[in-house]
Each structure stands twice: as C-alpha cells, then as structure tokens.
Hints:
Two copies of one chain form a homodimer. Chain A is an alpha+beta fold. Chain A has a domain at 22-53 and 61-97. Helices cover 32% and strands 41% of the residues of chain A. Chain A has helices at residues 26-37, 63-70, 73-86; strands spanning 10-19, 43-50, 54-60, 87-104. Chain A has a four-stranded antiparallel β-sheet. In chain A, a hairpin with a 3-residue loop joins β2 and β3 (54-60). In chain A, α1 (26-37) packs antiparallel against α3 (73-86). The radius of gyration of chain A is 14 Å and the shape is globular. Chain A starts with 9 loop residues before the first strand and ends with a strand. At the A-B interface, β1, β2, β3 and β4 of A face β1, β2, β3 and β4 of B. β4 (87-104) of chain A pairs antiparallel with β4 (87-104) of chain B. Chains A, B: Residues 10-80 form the ABM domain. Chains A, B: InterPro entries: ABM_dom (IPR007138), Dimeric_a/b-barrel (IPR011008), Jasmonate_Hydroxylase-like (IPR052936).
Amino acid sequence: xxxxxxxxxxxxxxxxxxxxxxxxxxxxxxxxxxxxxxxxxxxxxxxxxxxxxxxxxxxxxxxxxxxxxxxxxxxxxxxxxxxxxxxxxxxxxxxxxxxxxxxxxx
Amino acid sequence: xxxxxxxxxxxxxxxxxxxxxxxxxxxxxxxxxxxxxxxxxxxxxxxxxxxxxxxxxxxxxxxxxxxxxxxxxxxxxxxxxxxxxxxxxxxxxxxxxxxxxxxxxx
Lengths: 106, 106
C-alpha cells in the first residue's frame, strides 16, 4: 500500500533517472541498495516506479541520516557504477516534507 | 530528459497513488490536470511514473503557488472524482527542495 511515514517534518530524497540499455547487475544492485538503505539509521521507507523515467523516493528522519547514507561505501560504489553504466542522467533532490495528506478508500 | 528546475529552494508535491481498475475518463482527466497545472502561476514542471504504484512529482516556485493550484475549481472536482472512483489510496506530500544534484552522461 502507500508508504507509511510519521508526522511531518521528515525528509525525502527524490531520485529521478533515465536508464541506459545496460543491465550488468543493475537489478541486483538496485535491490541491494534498497536492502542496505533500510538498515541505515534514520531510514523510514522507500517507493519506486518506472516507465520512460524512474522515480524513487526514499524517506528519512533527518538530513544527517541522508548524508550518512550518501557516504556509505557500498552506496558510493553503486553510484559510481550508475554514472558509468546504468544511467544517461539522474537528478537527486533533497527535500524537507512540510505537510502531508492521506486518502484511503474505506 | 530529466525535468529542469531552478536553483533551490523551490517546492515539490509528491503524489503517490494506487489506482482502482476504474477508467471512466481517468487518462483524459490526468492529461487535462497536467495541462491545467502548467498554466498556473508558479508552476515549474511535472514528472510521473507508474507500476504497482504511481508517483507524480510536480515542482513549484512557492507554497502559495501550490495552495492556489490546490484550490483551483477544476482540480478540486478531479480530486473528488479521484477519491470516488480512480484511487484506492493516495498520499500528497508538500516539500521544500533544499538541495539538488544533476548527473548527465557526456
């Protein structure tokens, strides 16, 4: 269902990307990054969708938690391989979630 | 390509949704909302992807621009039909984009 997050404020990393045709372990690494992110302090949840572009949003308790994950060695290696092989382009946006609204059909 | 946005700060609305099987004009209305949003003051750009869940992120210059669009009459009607027919659940998150990073393969 819809990813559950606490009351704002919390933080979001919006990762928008355009893939190359290269596989070379992409799926495995993407799964591993989700698994590894989930083990980091301050991680909340992640959600993804892809058609022409991919949008992955991960949610975190603080900017410090995002910075810590950014510096993780295995994540850094994956990002470098991403630049070399998997992506034509990507943009990472670091955001503070100020308000949110949930709708669930009863 | 990747949606272009100005130097931060700017604002993002992350709309995460789970669709019902009901069509009833969904695609037309979704296209119309993108067209209409693009005409609003303070609109920057929008990007979307959908698999099991849909993620649409629209970018805006200010919270006031987001609030203005939220109150637009045709948008309000579309949101009400969305609640009745098109979505099991959705979550809207209003965010301030504090930093961003672009990668483009040369």
